[in-house]
């Protein structure tokens, strides 16, 4: 059990003997319950030298439980540039961190001995009200301390360190928190102690059974407690793609071998008294494969080393090799001599399989839940333990999900009283239990696998994998199902790249995914001590089916796809019986689209039938060609005189009958229709209409913007059909799977913006023709494979270039073309590592640079080279596994105004120290392990912090004198914003998705705050003293689900802008007295029943902008005319609003936007309305005829539909 940590604060020279008295008391009589933490003042004087350690003092106070101040007869020492003494600094830290404080004053001494009476009285006044238990001598001081500490002797202190590991495994140093496996650990330790020489133990078990933690925090930790193993070194590695390198590096880092030890024999000769742990040993198969010859060589070297150890003589000093791997890899790994040899001892870990050992499972899980908390002085309510057991019983791969839940449950608020209750769990999980936590995790898995939805191939694989593990039924009573791993792989490998299927699957069952569990169908070894390759897989919990919205959509799509397949198979059967014909052109297109979205549902019969339908069109085309040759002279005359007219007539007929303009009923009158097409400036073409739109582009004379989505085009020759190609300024091509060439783009002599997003990054596209686009200023290439960047040399006007997730055929990609154009903005997502950085030349014109190497092995040397060639940068963004450690400080130049770093590594903040002129700083996804002070950046005005691991308080960052704006997002450990109350001049504050933030207290220091945004902080329930924010002009409040009382608005009469979104609120009271906010000029209310009538807003005479979104109470617009200053009105999807008759009275309004109108409510459009801009959008299923729109426009020409 933890002890109470006591911090003693005092001056030193005059109170040395008194301090020693208290130290002796704590270290002897009180040692069972209390410990001294630490001896700060003694450290200061132990050499007789003065040392600066202000931060050490504050840290030690923060880490203690009880603060004891002895106040004597001296003022004490001041740190340099400080107006407070060390004692005051420690006292202030104790106040700030809410410590138990006891002040013990010495009351009898010669006042003439006081070194500075004025300062002494000032400090004494500061402590007034805190003094208790005065003393005259050492005996009275001892008694005083006894009285102070006596109540604590009956209580247990709380260690706030989170003892749970989430989805990560326990490490060797986490052994004190590892419970539930005592029997198995003892068995393994007994085996290892009984053997002599080198010992090899394999731990084998299903996914999610806790193998990694068992080996590290169980076996190794307990071995190190035995006398004979205390002097053993240990190394722990996961193989990855470089297993031999990783082991050699770990041995080198531990000082076991030298840099000269390269071969297996050289390394083996240095090994003795050593434990080698290779975690997730199956990675020598999953990470080392035929596509990467270097990784195969790494695997061979590792196995050569391990086999060499196994053949060493027993007289050699003992080496223990522990490996663990999933049971479904046992057969594949048995092909390696090291794994299958007689030297291996196999231990099957299955005691926590509920299906096999329900009684042991329950006892062990009770320990796993409760014991780590008990070690830190916290108890679980028995009711909560039983509830967690009941929830967990249904989950396959239990331990990671349980640890993930427990990790989220542990925070300062839940452990404050030493007991974690069911109510606290309900509050944190949103009353959704473990299932709700799984859902949130599932969405993160999707984002990681698909790179935020960019990798469409892997999204399809993920979707197919998961829906294959679900029994999709017509009555929507879907359930999870158990399937053979081999059958799923056989199905998917027929349609997707085998290595990518494997990658997605391994992520789903791996440590970071845990959405799919896998186990051996018979969970035991056979008589020959071998495993059969017979494994089953299923999703971890049916809650995913019921609650994960994305999966529900996929399941519904699967249900529809299955229905379509049944219809298609029936059609094929009818065709074979002579009752049906081949598919029509339109139906063939639909069948192809269905097949591309659901490749694993198709079969040979379907593929053959679709091909036969397509071939029938080809035959008809060939027959037509023969007829043209046969009747050439007749057809020549026909095409010269009649074909253009027939083409136009045919095209117009297709348009009228198509659903492209879904909200318009197009007229059959050709002249009206032609005028309509001539006026169009923006056109979007997709899979459903590309065949007749692209061939008839000459009928769209005014096009300025063209988008083509998911159309199976091969090139861009259709652009030659444009009547006025010089008018086109914008072209976007998205996921056109058959696209191979850019031929045809050369006609666009005035194009300024071109974006090409591929279907996947492995389909090669020849982009050479792009070099003809001399007027191009912005080019975006996303998710395509191209040859190289040489085509850029011809784009002399290019200013902005974005390259995202692209593959390049050229093995040594030259970057020279980047220096041949006067680029100003460059954004590169480096998807591969074969870029020849040495070819990069001077880019002095560049003032904005974004480098993303999240999916590449490129590191700081690449960044350094770019920064050397871009000396005039004003904006820089770096994303990827980037610590900054190897970054040359001088390359971050003094001209830099804005810096954004997104990383997944421990970040070195010292690289920022020289950026004296930096004004904007964004930090995201960083890992910090020390105080990340930013106080050296004197000119910083805006700070954006996003999802930084290890940042628990803004106090760790420090105060920046010119800071005007702070944005904090996804900081789940952030519990208070106290430091902001010492930040003068802060004008803008945004707090988004900070789940541990419970209250925000405005203590009067944020007097300059003008803009305040609160979004998605689901545990925030109080805004204390917000009236002190006297300069606040703008407030945004969205999705803060626990604030239900808006009376605080009464204190914000100076507000000019207010935005409130009440979606997800459990309950809320009506928003009171908005009409009293007389200064409001902008008001946005979403998902609210307020106002019931616009009469409630009477008095808002300054209101200029009003947006009402999804209000279920509004039925008419009466009262709007009283808002005299209103000039912009938006009404969006108010389902009960049907009476718009008051619009004609809003003469002062310059713009009106109304969304979600139905036909029956549209009569008001025929009346004379205000002359400002009016935008109308009908419900998707409804619309007006073009003739009706013409009638409306005669009365109100300012309306846009």
From TrEMBL:
This is DUF4062 domain-containing protein. It comes from the Bacteria. The keyword Lipid metabolism does not apply. Residues 163-579 form the Novel STAND NTPase domain. Signal peptide: none annotated. Residues 5-94 form the DUF4062 domain. InterPro entries: DUF4062, Leu-rich_rpt, LRR_dom_sf, nSTAND1, P-loop_NTPase, SDS22/Internalin_LRR. The chain crosses the membrane at residues 623-642. PANTHER family: LEUCINE-RICH REPEAT AND IQ DOMAIN-CONTAINING PROTEIN 1-RELATED (PTHR46652), LEUCINE-RICH REPEAT-CONTAINING PROTEIN 9 (PTHR46652:SF3). Pfam families: DUF4062, nSTAND1. Keywords: Leucine-rich repeat, Membrane, Repeat, Transmembrane, Transmembrane helix.
């Amino acid at each position: 059990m933890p002890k109470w940590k006591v911090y003693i604060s005092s001056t030193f020279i005059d109170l040395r003997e008194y301090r020693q008295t208290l130290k002796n008391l704590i270290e002897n009589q009180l040692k069972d319950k209390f410990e001294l933490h630490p001896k700060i003042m003694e450290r200061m004087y132990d050499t007789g030298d003065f040392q600066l350690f202000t931060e050490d003092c504050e840290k030690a106070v923060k880490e203690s439980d009880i603060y004891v101040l002895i106040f004597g007869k001296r003022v004490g020492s001041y740190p340099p540039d400080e107006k407070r003494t060390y004692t005051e600094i420690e006292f202030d830290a104790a106040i700030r961190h809410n410590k138990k404080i006891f002040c013990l004053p010495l009351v009898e001494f010669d006042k003439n001995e006081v070194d500075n009476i004025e300062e002494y009285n000032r400090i004494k006044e500061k402590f007034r009200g805190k003094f208790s238990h005065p003393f005259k001598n050492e005996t009275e001081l001892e008694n005083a301390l006894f009285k102070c500490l006596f109540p604590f002797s009956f209580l247990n202190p709380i260690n706030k360190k989170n003892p749970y590991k989430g989805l990560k495994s326990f490490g060797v140093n986490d052994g004190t928190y590892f419970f539930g496996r005592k029997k198995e650990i003892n068995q393994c330790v007994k085996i290892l102690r009984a053997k002599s020489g080198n010992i090899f133990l394999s731990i084998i078990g299903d996914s999610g059974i806790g193998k990694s933690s068992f080996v590290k925090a169980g076996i190794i930790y307990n071995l190190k407690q035995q006398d004979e193993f205390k002097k053993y070194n240990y190394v722990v590695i996961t193989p990855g793609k470089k297993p031999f390198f990783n082991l050699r590096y770990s041995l080198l880092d531990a000082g076991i071998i030298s840099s000269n030890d390269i071969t297996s024999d050289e390394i083996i000769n240095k090994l003795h008294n050593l434990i080698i742990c290779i975690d997730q040993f199956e990675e020598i198969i999953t990470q080392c494969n035929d596509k990467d010859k270097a990784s195969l060589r790494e695997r061979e070297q590792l196995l050569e080393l391990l086999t060499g150890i196994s053949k060493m003589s027993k007289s050699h000093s003992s080496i223990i090799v522990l490996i663990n791997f999933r049971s479904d890899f046992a057969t594949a790994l048995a092909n390696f001599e090291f794994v299958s040899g007689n030297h291996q001892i196999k231990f099957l870990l299955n005691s926590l399989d509920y299906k096999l050992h329900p009684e042991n499972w329950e006892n062990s899980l009770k320990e796993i839940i409760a014991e780590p908390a008990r070690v830190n002085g916290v108890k679980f309510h028995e009711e909560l333990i039983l509830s967690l057991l009941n929830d967990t019983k249904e989950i396959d791969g239990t331990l990671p999900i349980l640890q993930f839940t427990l990790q989220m449950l542990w925070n300062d608020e839940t452990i404050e009283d030493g007991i974690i209750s069911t109510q606290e769990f309900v509050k944190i999980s949103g009353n959704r239990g473990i299932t709700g936590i799984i859902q949130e995790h599932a969405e993160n898995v999707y984002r990681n696998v698909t790179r935020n939805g960019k990798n469409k191939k892997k999204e399809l694989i993920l979707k197919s994998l998961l829906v294959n593990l679900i029994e999709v039924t017509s009555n929507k009573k879907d359930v999870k199902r158990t399937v053979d791993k081999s059958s799923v792989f056989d199905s998917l490998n027929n349609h997707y790249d085998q290595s990518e299927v494997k990658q997605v699957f391994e992520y789903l069952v791996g440590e970071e995914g845990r959405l799919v569990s896998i186990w051996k169908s018979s969970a035991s070894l056979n008589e020959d001590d071998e495993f059969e390759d017979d494994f089953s897989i299923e999703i971890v919990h049916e809650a995913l089916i019921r609650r994960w919205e994305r999966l529900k959509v996929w399941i519904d799509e699967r249900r529809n796809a299955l229905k379509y397949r049944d219809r298609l198979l029936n059609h094929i059967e009818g065709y074979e019986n002579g009752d049906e014909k081949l598919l029509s052109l339109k139906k063939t297109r639909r069948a192809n689209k269905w097949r591309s979205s659901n490749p694993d549902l198709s079969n040979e019969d379907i593929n053959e039938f679709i091909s036969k339908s397509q071939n029938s069109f080809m035959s008809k085309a060939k027959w037509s060609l023969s007829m043209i040759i046969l009747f050439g002279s007749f057809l020549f005359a026909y095409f010269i005189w009649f074909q253009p007219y027939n083409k136009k007539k045919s095209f117009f007929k297709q348009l009228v009958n198509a659903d492209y303009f879904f909200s318009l009923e197009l007229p059959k009158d050709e002249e009206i229709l032609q005028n309509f097409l001539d006026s169009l400036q923006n056109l979007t073409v997709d899979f459903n209409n590309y065949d007749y739109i692209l061939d008839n582009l000459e009928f769209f004379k005014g096009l300025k913007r063209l988008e083509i989505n998911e159309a199976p085009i091969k090139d861009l020759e259709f652009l030659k059909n444009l009547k006025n190609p010089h008018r086109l300024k914008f072209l976007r091509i998205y996921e056109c799977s058959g696209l191979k060439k850019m031929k045809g783009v050369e006609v666009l002599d005035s194009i300024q913006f071109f974006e090409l997003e591929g279907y996947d990054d492995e389909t090669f596209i020849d982009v050479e023709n792009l070099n003809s686009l001399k007027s191009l200023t912005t080019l975006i290439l996303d998710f395509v494979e191209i040859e190289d960047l040489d085509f850029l040399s011809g784009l002399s006007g290019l200013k902005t270039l974005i390259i995202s997730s692209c593959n390049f055929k050229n093995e040594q990609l030259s970057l020279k073309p980047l220096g041949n154009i006067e680029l100003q903005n460059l954004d590169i997502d480096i998807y591969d590592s074969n870029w020849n950085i040495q070819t990069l030349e001077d880019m002095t014109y560049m003032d904005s640079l974004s480098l993303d190497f999240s999916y590449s092995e490129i590191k700081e040397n690449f960044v350094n080279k770019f920064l050397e060639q871009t000396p005039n940068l004003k904006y820089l963004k770096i994303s990827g596994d980037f610590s900054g450690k190897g970054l040359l400080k001088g390359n971050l130049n003094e001209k830099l105004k804005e810096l954004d770093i997104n990383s997944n590594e421990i970040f070195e903040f010292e690289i920022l120290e020289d950026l004296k002129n930096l004004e904007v700083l964004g930090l995201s996804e960083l890992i910090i392990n020390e105080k990340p002070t930013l106080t050296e950046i004197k000119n910083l005005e805006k700070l954006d912090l996003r999802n930084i691991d290890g940042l628990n308080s803004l106090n760790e960052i420090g105060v920046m004198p010119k800071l005007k704006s702070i944005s904090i997002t996804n900081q789940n450990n952030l519990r208070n914003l106290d430091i902001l109350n010492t930040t003068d001049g802060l004008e803008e504050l945004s707090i988004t998705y900070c789940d541990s933030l419970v209250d925000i207290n405005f203590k009067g220091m944020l007097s300059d705050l003008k803009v305040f945004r609160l979004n998605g902080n689901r545990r925030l329930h109080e805004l204390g003293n917000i009236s002190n924010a006297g300069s606040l002009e703008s407030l945004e409040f969205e999705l803060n689900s626990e604030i239900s009382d808006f009376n605080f608005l009464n204190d914000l009469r100076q507000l000019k802008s207010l935005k409130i979104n009440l979606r997800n609120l459990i309950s809320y009271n009506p928003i009171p007295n908005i009409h009293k906010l007389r200064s409001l000029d902008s008001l946005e209310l979403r998902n609210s029943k307020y106002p019931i009538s616009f009469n409630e807003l009477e008095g808002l005479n300054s209101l200029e902008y009003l947006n009402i979104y999804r209000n279920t109470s509004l039925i008419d617009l009466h009262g709007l005319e009283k808002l005299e200053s209103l000039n912009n009105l938006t009404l969006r999807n108010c389902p009960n609003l049907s009476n718009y008759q008051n619009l004609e009275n809003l003469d002062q309004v310059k713009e009106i936007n109304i969304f979600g109108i139905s036909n029956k409510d549209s009569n008001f459009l025929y009346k004379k309305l205000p002359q400002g801009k009016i935008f109308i959008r009908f419900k998707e299923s409804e619309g007006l005829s073009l003739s009706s729109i013409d009638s409306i426009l005669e009365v109100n020409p300012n309306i846009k539909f």
